[in-house]
Design goal:
This protein has about 230 residues and is α+β, with helices and mostly antiparallel strands. The protein has helices at about 5-15, 75-80, 80-85, 100-110, 115-120, 185-200, 200-205, and strands at about 25-35, 40-45, 55, 60, 130-135, 145-155, 170-175, 220, 225. It has a domain at about 5-65 and about 130-225: Nucleoside Triphosphate Pyrophosphohydrolase, CATH 3.90.79. The chain is about 25% helix and about 25% strand. The strands form 2 sheets. Strands 1, 2, 3, 4, 5, 6 and 7 form a 7-stranded mixed beta sheet that branches. Strands 8-9 form a two-stranded antiparallel ribbon.
């Protein structure tokens, strides 16, 4: 039985139970892109409560402590030319040292807020490098629900990914149109198909997308629709 059939069964059981939907939690996820045209995916560990053993993009719930995060706004929001709105080329070349590893572990364990980490190290989040793509809300029949914003970004020159943490059992770079054999939830598969249709990283980053209107999968006549 495929993923969508399982979801249809879950929707039927939820309707028959008369249960009330839980409110969704705010979350975000990022499609990291690199030349020639690949996207970074993780396979969630079997121990994960939500979407176990599924391929997904890195992301997670929004931490309320990060509401006052210092960030560089996209140029069009500032009304400035792109060159003026962007910060200097101050991307960190390497965060694999022991001090950064301890900071990463503390953030993952929610012992330290991400905004607090940035302030301690005199850093600013380069939100101008993130391109909003979509917003998905988990169906009402799921016991864990998320209101998730999807973003695209290009892997900065000189940066590299590193497989760490207990959430992912595996990580890979793959072309967005070469994922048919990978298990994933509908939002991931639909998003990859949309990005692949752009044909290139440049076209995907320049696409005009409606992020304000959320997509909420639901079941109609025994089929999952978006």
């Amino acid at each position: 039985m495929d993923v969508e059939q399982h979801l249809v069964q879950d929707a039927r059981r939820f309707a028959e139970s008369g249960a009330t939907a839980v409110p969704p939690q705010l979350a975000a996820t990022v499609l990291l892109l690199r030349p020639p045209f690949e996207v970074y995916l993780i396979r969630r560990a079997l121990t994960m409560v939500f979407a176990a053993d599924m391929h997904a993009f890195p992301g997670g719930r929004v931490d309320p402590r990060d509401a006052d995060l210092d960030w560089v706004a996209p140029a069009h929001r500032l009304g400035l030319p792109d060159a003026e709105a962007r910060a200097p080329d101050d991307l960190l070349p390497d965060v694999s040292g022991p001090d950064w590893e301890e900071a990463r572990r503390a953030v993952e364990a929610r012992e330290l807020g991400f905004a607090e980490l940035l302030r301690e190290r005199g850093l600013v989040l380069r939100a101008d490098l993130l391109v909003p793509w979509a917003r998905w809300i988990t169906p009402e029949f799921e016991p864990r629900r998320y209101d998730t914003y999807f973003f695209l970004t290009r892997l900065p020159a000189g940066q590299r990914t590193r497989h760490v943490g207990g959430e992912a059992a595996h990580a890979l770079w793959v072309a967005p149109d070469r994922v048919a054999d990978l298990r994933m939830m509908p939002p991931t598969r639909v998003t990859l198909a949309q990005v692949a249709a752009c044909g290139s990283i440049e076209a995907a980053l320049a696409a005009d997308r409606d992020v304000a209107t959320p997509v909420t999968p639901h079941v109609v006549d025994g089929r999952l629709v978006y």
